[in-house]
Amino acid sequence: LGLALYAGSLCAVSGATFLYHDYCVIGAGPAGLQVAYFLQQASRDYIVFERGHAPGSFFALYPRHRKLISINKQYTGKSNSEFNLRHDWNSLLSHDRRLLFRHYSRDFFPNADTMVHYLEDFASLLKLQVQYNTAIIHVTLEKNEQAWNGHYFLLTDQDRKSYKCSSLLVAAGMWVPNVVNFPGSEYVEGYETVSINPEDFAGQTVLILGRGNSAFETAENILGVTNFIHMVSRSRVRLSWATHYVGDLRAINNGLLDTYQLKSLDGLLEGDLEDLAIVKDKKGKLHITLRFYLENRNISAGIDSITLPQDELDNFATRAPYDRVIRCLGWKFDFSIYNRSLRVMPGKGNIQKYPQIKPSYESRGTRGLFILGTASHSVDFRKSAGGFIHGFRYTTRAVHRLLENRHHGVPWPSTVYPITQLTNSIIKRVNEASGLYQMFSVLADIILLRENATAFEYLEEYPIGVLTELEMQTGRKAHSGLFVIIMEYGRNFSGADKDVFYYNRAVGEAQHAWQSNFLHPVIYYYKHLPTEREMKLRPPDWPLPRPDAIHHIVEDFLTDWTAPNAHILPLRRFLENCLSTDLRNFFAESCFLFAFTHQKLPPFCQQGYLRMQGLVGSQELRHHAVQAGLLQDYTHTDSLGDRPPDSHDGSQEQLMRDHVIPVRPLQHLVNAKDE
Q1: In which domain, by residue range, is 119 found?
Q2: Alpha-carbon distance values, 546 to 174, 535, 539, 632 (Å)
Q3: 336 contacts: CB under 8 Å, gap ≥ 6
Q4: Can you give the pLDDT at residue 294?
Q5: Of 57, 110, 180, 187, which cross-links 52 as Cys (Cβ 3.0–4.6 Å)?
């Protein structure tokens, strides 16, 4: 019998057929479609599995009241598409200009049905490889030394079809409701099923469990028809304008705060939900009590035999009975489909609803398994925007770049510039880059210096959590030092208890830039790539280890860091101090004089003037330079008739007439004066 069973199992294994792809993506929501786009652009072998009949099935149901809280700003006053993405929180990244969300809705807070339509178009217009009506119900490993990561991922769908892939990208989102079990919790209605018709709540008294946007969204919908609404949660309300975290309570949903503070019957309470209990009376009313009152008592015996808090404390806050109790506690990751061999484990503390992942978004338990989208938010929970489209569209691109380097030998994209372009490159990025702006303190631009600081290599939007692994993860070398450019809020400016509207909250002077509160660029300089130990020992609330030098560009009310004196000049001098060089721009006359009076020329003269590069001089340029005080006017010092034709002054004037002026756009010439 044993031999027969063994033979039968061998036949079953050998008979199983696996459809193979290099990359398997679970979920065709925004993150799944985003990574599919990058894989397709790179001509990789991939497949996306979606349990629904169309992409974005979560948005077909949620939010229940259909209004998104991701902004859709139509106008910014600028035509720069990269800058405009800073204020477009719904579009995915692609080369197709038709797939900008502003073409689908003009609403500042769009309807969720529009998002479903947008995702359908994104998948179809870009011809992404999505397999619909396929629910992956089990994932396990198959050891194989020839595989990319030492194993293959084996996936099984609801029809028992099997798939094999070398790398697994999980973009299934967070869709399992958070449920708290306590005595009487069976009387609680869930956010996912409760009625959204306000008339169903007319004249009722309602208790809402939770204090996030779903709770306030539900309250906002019924605020005008209920007797009163109470809301209870274990933590105080966190306002997004105070925490600077877009997942906290947004102003669009906070009507209940008005009615609470203006004494219009509604109210907020704090308490541990696991300590609660609900008792139903004969009239169907729901009474709130505490769990310890029910110890050694039979809850089914009736309310008359149960001690309620108001029996001992006659002004107990929730002594009035409720008609309905609604649970709005958010969502958690679905861990059930992953075999124990994958070691996909929940996080700890306030991130236990997320799977444990590294700062590279790779699972801590299994190499080659990456978590994308909302479920990857543990990396920056309550810090940045990684749990939302306008954040994870950039972290997804970062993961794709890591995979391209690891599996296909394609280094992280970079551009090499002469050192004279260092200041301009930084100013350009901090003024328009959307990834730095949205994923502040998480993604950074990296500037790798070449030997002798004659040139630099620019890498965009690299995850700073794996800065110590930069050479391995990107295929780039950091032998001669590096700059790290990130965006930060002030250290003590964000928090649920912070007053962010206090007088003199903004800094305007460049010398006080380190005290800036609002989002602003910060440049870290390291002579050597930080080590893992330095990363672990970094100061509390610092995104990076202590650098060899640091520079804050002072916050700007318009988020426009182009002021010559307040922004550019302090930055340039900081860079010069770090590199021990002169990064100023010069006219040809100055370079000519430097060549005769200095042993070492500034980089601008070395890389421009001495190589005969620059703009051809003209009468208009010379006149402009003279009027601006950048050049001496030789035409009025002597007349040509008073000087021999071969005099020095004449040859100097001829030099200025015939020589070139180094390359710089005309608008930068006003900043070229020797300082």
Answers
A1: 19-176+332-402
A2: 35, 9, 8, 46
A3: none
A4: 75
A5: 57
Residues 6+ positions from 34 with CB-CB distance below 8 Å: 92, 93, 372, 392, 393, 396, 397
pLDDT at 16: 62
Residue 658 belongs to a domain: no
Question: Of 329, 362, 393, which closes a domain?
Answer: 329
23/172 same-domain check: yes
Task: Please indicate, yes or no, whether residues 465 and 601 belong to a single structural domain of this protein.
Answer: no
What pLDDT score was predicted for residue 305?
A: 66
pLDDT of residue 576: 96
Could you tell me the pLDDT band of residue 398, with boundaries at 50, 70 and 90? very high
* pLDDT tens per residue across span 374-384: 999 999 999 99
Side chain identity, residue 26: I
User: Does residue 240 share a domain with residue 209?
Assistant: yes
- The total domain count for the chain is 4
Section 215-224 average pLDDT? 95
| Residues 6+ positions from 483 with CB-CB distance below 8 Å | 426, 446, 447, 449, 523, 524, 525, 526, 575, 578
- Using CA atoms, how far apart are residues 141 and 607, in angstroms rounded to an integer? 55
Percent of the chain with pLDDT over 70: 89
Residues 6+ apart with CB under 8 A from 74: 102, 106
Is residue 299 domain-shared with residue 382, that is, in the same domain? no
CATH of the domain at 259: 3.50.50.60
Q: Are residues 24 and 172 both part of a single domain?
A: yes
